[in-house]
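Submission sheet (multi-component)
Chains listed below:
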Amino acid sequence: METPLTHNISPGREPPDLAQYEKAGGYGALRKALGMAPAEIQAAVKESNLRGRGGAGFPTAQKWSFVPMGDDAPRPKYLVCNADEMEPGTFKDRMLLEGDPHQLIEGIIISAYAIQADVAYVFLRWAYKLAARRVERAIVEAYRHGYLGKNILGSAYSLEMHLHVSAGRYICGEETALLNALEGKRANPRAKPPYPQVSGLWGKPTIVNSVETLCNVPHIVKQGAEWFRSLSRSDDGGTKLYGASGRVKNPGLWELPMGTPLREILEEHAGGMRDGYQFRGVLPGGASTDFVTAEHLDVAMDFDSVQKAGSRLGTGTMIILDDKTCPVGMLLNLEHFFAQESCGWCTPCWSGLSWIEQILQDMEEGRGRASDLELLESHTRLLGPGHTFCALAPGAAEPLQSGLKYFRDDFERHIHEKRCPWSPT
Amino acid sequence: MLSEQERKEIEAHARHYPNNRAVCIEALKIVQQHRGWVSNEGIADVAEALQMKPAELESVATFYNMIFRKPVGKHVILLCDSVSCWIMGYERLRQHLGDRLGIRPGQTTADGRFTLLPNVCLGACDHAPVMMVDDAHYQDLDPARIDQILASYQQEEEKSTDGNTADA
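Outcome: structure written.
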């Protein structure tokens, strides 16, 4: 089984420096890309069926295709690497950032070339201190060896790249909020249209791609779209970094073919549940995805299959709920996070999420009422897609709506017993 | 007024952006690194240097979780309160840390050594529960491990105090 993304990564070891990365074939894809037309690279990525790995799964080449090209295109154009990764339960990009920063930089340069961007930013979350040091060092090395700056490797193409370390706020991961953060503003999302591809950073054409998406690009260019598609067990091309946390025997991260079944990941790679614990459900792709339960264990972990099962692949990093953890308490924790991290820009989000949090807090403390279930359900509808300015509140509604569906008995017990059944009396 | 060092560091970052405003978050972080937190004076200094209105900069400073608008202790403990850490024992650790330090989340110890803050996902969910102390990550925590970590900071400070005495 091929694992291109993690090929150079060994946990606990220093990442390859530039010389080691080159020795392993690194920057070969960039050399090849500079001999291709930008349109050829876009075509290869389109053919590869690469879908964005930040959570939404939008086809990468299609996103790129909206960028104005040619001599008349507004300048400068920007490419931003979204390395914010603040969704609870998500920890995959950290491995790529810390483990092989040159792979990311090569991916950014090739992707920037494909849309003829002039400047690239790596937008990194505050807490990733080690990643910041390693990415910064790799950028300096890349400049020194002619992979960045003016006339890259003697070509006509020039690109500047900078690391921007954020100051901590979940909403910064939302594409347009991230652009405001880069401009030195509060990270409130922007109205779309105009879309960032046409009018993004400082009003110029901008592409925002996630770390894992960009890391795939050099491999597609180097080995071809057909090879990339062949890595997958589904229609979405490539491999995927899957992760698991919670009470499993072997929590961790694994690069596996896209479309690997949930059961295989949980049982073979995560080692199954810890002794004394039973599986009850899983958020398959981070805190903003719907629960799925034992009946869904055979679902293929790709974008369309997980959607058919009523959830989202999201980031592919799973949070497992066991039988000794209170589902209402888990949802209270999740909704507290979303309420706290709401940017406050639109009323349904900041007001609705705080209300949900309060209802769940009351329930956990024995003050739940029968009418609360209906109230919570109405919130999941009112905060759903189309009712708020961005996707934060709809994301917060996902675990709640599925929690109410699959763990209804647990909610009712809280209300009838006037206490949390999992708390010691 | 910004110190010479603060000014130099801000100018180095400002080169990465097409206008001054864009460097304001980095500038706040630089001031915080040098002064421990961002006071009203810090806001005024950065605003003046970047030709922004102080109120405008204040609105940015209060938005981001890691810009401290109140004084913090010598060491800032960020205990991850996100879902994987919660499942793996966050509440027990919060209680334990609070008991050991004699403070609640959001507070600073009377001797000014530690500030305890809950923090959203620190991105090491496979090693939950986790926390950061200043720039260092600590994973797979339990109460005993927390005691060891706090003791190591105590020992480091004692060594540093001994060193200062010897130097004097």
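Remark: Chain B has seven helices and four strands.
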